[in-house]
Amino acid sequence: GRPGPGSTSSSNPWSNEEVKIFLSLLADERIQCELDGSVRNEKIFQGLALAMSTHGFERTSKQCREKIKKLKAEYRSVKDHGSRSGADRRHWKWFAEMDAIYGERPVSNGRESGVDTATPAHTGPRDNGE
C-alpha cells in the first residue's frame, strides 16, 4: 500500500539502496534534459516516483523533489568545501554519483543550450525515436 498523505520523508528515511536507484534514474540523460528544459518538473518527479515504485520503493513525487533538493545542496557544499581541502569528497558517499550527474556542467544552463543554432544535430530531448 502507498503511504498516506500524512507520511513525510523525515519519518521514512531513504535507504542506501533506495538512493542508489534514485540516482541512477536521475542520471538518465532524458531526465536531465527535461529538468533543464521547459517540461514542468512536477511531471518529471511523478515519473521518478513511478520508476521508484517499480523497484519496490514507494515515494511520492514530493519526496523525490525534496530528495533531489537535499542531495544537490549537500553536493554543492561538499564540492565547495572539497575544492579547498579535497578530503570531504571521498567522505560523502554519494559524491561520485552526483558528480557524474552534475559535475560536468553548470547546474542551471540547460535552457540556452537548446537554442544553440550552431548545433542543429541536437534538436531536443524528446525526438530520439523511443
UniProtKB/TrEMBL annotation:
It comes from the Eukaryota. Residues 105-130 are annotated as: Disordered. It holds the Pfam family Myb_DNA-bind_4. Residues 12-101 form the Myb/SANT-like DNA-binding domain. Gene3D superfamilies: Homeodomain-like. Coiled coil: none annotated. This is Myb/SANT-like DNA-binding domain-containing protein. It comes from Nothobranchius furzeri.
